[in-house]
Amino acid sequence: MRQGAAERSDNVLNIPQPQREQARSQEMPAQRSGQAIIALLQQAADAARRNEERAKAQALHLADELRASEERCRAIEARLRHFEQRAAEAEEWLLRIHEEVQDRLIAPLTGNEQQQEAARRR
Fold it and tell me: How many domains does the chain have?
């Protein structure tokens, strides 16, 4: 059994202490670089998440504003139709009043003058 233990120790690479520290120091920059890259990726992912949330919030806000604008537009169109109808009714009344004035006031006056002129000519 002691031979097995001796053989095992022969199979193990014995690195002297200074070489171990050198190997660790070589691992450290690669490890630090890897961790730095992962940290930067995490920061980029966080920034992307924040941008997405901000974009979603802005989109919701703009959608609400659009809905409100559409409602105001529909209300204005309804008021427009109402006032167009009132204007059409007022125009009809003005036309009717004009016809009444022509028929009742102006026509008799011009008719009398024409009758008087006809009588003078005879």
Answer: 1
